[in-house]
Amino acid sequence: MFHRQLSRHTWLYTEMVTTGALLHGDVARHLDFDAAEQPVALQLGGSEPADLAAAAKLGERWGYVEVNLNCGCPSERVQRGAFGACLMAEPELVADCVKAMRDAVSIPVTVKHRIGIDTIEHYDFVRDFVGTVADAGCETFIVHARNAILKGLSPKENREIPPLRYEVAYQLKQEFPHLEILINGGIVTHDEMDVHLAHVDGVMIGREAYHQPYVLAEMDRRFYTAQTPVPSRLDVELAMQRYIGDLVEKGGYMGAVTRHMLGLHRGIHGGRGWRRVLSDARRMHAVRTRAAVDAMFEEARAHLLPGGAPSLAAA
């Protein structure tokens, strides 16, 4: 919901949800979302075709517009479940998974993957993976342009240490021009996105959208030719303040939302003080009313400008 205040058109993806969590857990907790958040894609983790098909059906039933199979996560926990990046070594199995999901749902089924695993760095490996999975009907591939090191690196290190090789994603697009190829990994600025879009069909950003979320604010005008005004940071904050007010009046926890908003004023004078107020878990556990939410936000905004930022009532 926070990112939707910044961009109406950028596609949003869930965190990876395992098939086990959906088939044996609380489905609503994992899948429920507000229609205002659309378009949203559901990213699944799993390696059993029947289970993935059942999970994809749930995703379609809950209103997701795409199902994405994660073949890029390198964590040991995911490897123990025999899915994520280690699936790249089994392209025929991934093809079976894709076919099972495509047979089960009418929404697109896509795959997110790395360009190699461990010391396998030759282009033929990822080319054959994409070709095999495409033969099963997958038309969209999101390419994290790094190898996944399955042993010896943490997930965080796997997002930073293996070198980026964007040219591999470019080569995939050249070899498979009929496929939609998106690129992911280390992309920060709009100008960088423009460079990549000269070679591939789309760009996915992850960490930058989380740590510097205001990067999304100009997306609609720059990449989707939207004529709507670029939202200000204050516009976004006030919209989320209303949303959180509704949440706490229904018994929700304010910090469950604000912890994902802490990058909104990053780099802005007073941003550190703003973050300090809105990351005070002890105080937020006591927030039970809309008035208390408004008071915390107004206290936080007071750090941004000498005279304090406008209040919700004034806006």
From TrEMBL:
Keywords: Flavoprotein, FMN, NADP, Nucleotide-binding, Oxidoreductase, RNA-binding, tRNA processing, tRNA-binding. Pfam families: Dus. The keyword tRNA processing applies. It is an enzyme of class 1 (oxidoreductase). FMN binds at residues 43, 112, 144, 184-186, 206-207. Its EC number is 1.3.1.91. PANTHER family: FMN-LINKED OXIDOREDUCTASES SUPERFAMILY PROTEIN. Belongs to the Dus family. DusA subfamily. This is tRNA-dihydrouridine(20/20a) synthase.
